[in-house]
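User: My collaborator sent over this chain with a note saying "see what the structure looks like." That's all I know about it. Can you take a look?
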Amino acid sequence: MRRIEISHKIEMGMKTYPGLPEPRAEVFMDYDSSKYNGLSEFYIASLHCCGNTGTYVDAPIHRYRNATDLAGLSLDRLAHIPVVVIEATGHEAIGPDTFKHLKLEGKAVLFRTEWSRHWRTPEYFNPNPHLTQEACDALLDKGIAMAGIDSVNIDSLADLSRPAHTTLLKAGIPICEHMTNLSAIPDEGGYIHAVPIAWVGGATFPVRAYIIAA
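Assistant: Without extra context I'll predict from the sequence alone. Here is the result:
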């Protein structure tokens, strides 16, 4: 079995989304200051970051008040879910025609746009590949378990109504954004793991997402 990394690394000073804070680390204890009578030494640090940092998962509470938070998400929608990769390179508005003939029930549907090639460049925040309202409606009809994309947002940054978030999260479908390396995974046959911490009240949080494939 292979494990394929599909998440970005979190580095100090990186920007995931315009206007949101960049991650920073604070060292609480370094090797020289750790006091274990010379028998051992440790490094302890804290990471301060917005939930929308790097590759992350959205819970329904991200869009809806009093909806399911990160701690309430079922692992059945986050871990060892069969994956289907949808080829959407070159599409800005991704419609249902890209997957209309596929069986997607119970699947994590990942849209490969190759937008991640712009990661950590100004171009990453240009008009981005995104799902249309019609695509999201069709995904619900097909009974998907999870949705993901290797773009800055599953919605168009220009559309403040955020139809993809509105539709998918209302149905309880977690969303994983800012994915990468989707070209390395098979179109079918793999399983995704993208589990955030069980944060009570948390809406979004980084994940180390990966695919298990034969």
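A starting point for your reply to your collaborator: Residues 2-7+51-213 form a domain with the Glucose Oxidase; domain 1 fold (CATH 3.50.30.50).
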